[in-house]
Design goal:
Layout lengths: L3 E5 L4 H5 L2 H10 L4 E7 L14 E5 L4 H18 L3 E4 L4 H9 L4 E5 L10 E3 L10 H6 L26 H13 L7 E6 L11 H14 L3 E6 L5 H15 L6 E3 L5 H9 L3 E5 L2 H6 L6 E5 L4 H4 L9 E5 L19 H4 L3 H19 L3
Parallel strand pairs: 1-2, 1-4, 2-3, 4-5, 5-6, 7-8, 7-10, 8-9, 10-11, 11-12
Helix pairs in contact: 3-4, 6-9, 7-8, 7-13
Length: 365
Amino acid sequence: MPVKILLIRLRLIGDVVFTTPAIRAVRRAFPDASITYLVEEHAAAVVRGNPHIDHLMEIERASGWRRVIQDLTVAQQLRHQRFDIVVDFHGGPRGSFLAWASGAKVRLGYEVKGRSWMYTTSVARPRELRPRHSVENQWDLLPYLSPALAGSPDRTIDRTEMAEDPAAAARVAQRLQDAGVSAAHRLIVIHVSAGNPFRRWPAGHFESLAVQLGAADPVRRIILTSGPSEVQAARQIADRARERLGVGSDTVLAGQEFTLTELRSLVARAALFIGGDSGPLHVASTTDVPIVGLYGPTLPVRSAPWRPEALVTEAVELTDLPCRPCDQRQCEPGDFRCLTTVSPDVVSQAAERALWRAARNRGPM
């Protein structure tokens, strides 16, 4: 019988993306194993279709008594499957409980006060905000799974990945065609929202950025994407940017909401992606598109795209603020200055630099 391995990372989108190098490594160390990945529905698209996973378990993010009932049901399902090994990359109460409830003989997780007993092996994870990438933090668990996984992850061999959905790609192609965007245009995707106010760049800054990038090259098309709660805001930004660019301008577009798989396909077609440290940036990192990331309370050394160094990545951050990084519970100065004082000019310059570097890497056509 093949070894049965359960990997747990329930959320968030970016954190699930950051487990994909480990998924690949586990498959490499256990080529004949049956690997199951447990994730909440909101982030499941990241690993749906992952070639290194045999089974995907998607669960709802419930609350209250519904959550208790659901967790007991899931626990029963996990125990019935008789996993040999469980690796809990999450470390939250729900992940710890489900790892323990699986009944696996080997259960790997992080040292967490009050929950370490749920694992057969717990690995230290300092609580301070260390300047160390999240992929490396998650990799700390793997040597206890197999000696073959000792050492550090390699950005080229073990990069983040997300499978492209052909149906999503077809939908995106049709939407671009309907919007008048052709292969002759250079598409720049700007994601204008973030679920966390600490990571949200001001709307006026996005507007000015779109105007600067659109005015610099007539073959560019700027498409503004957003989360579900900010679709209207993205449209307003696009409307104001078009007004500033001139009557009848079709340079700046506001896309309707995209699913994660559609966003991945859209970004893969682009010449550049710009966005804050949130899920869409990490989805973009699974493609080869040049990226400009905006970092406020977080550090790029911890959450920048994890992919080959040859791929163009620019990080925009303020390095002279003593309050960075922070735990994103309370803004010490009170004005979110780590992002609000980052000017559109600085981001525009980073964008132009990324486009230039990408063109140089491609060489003469």
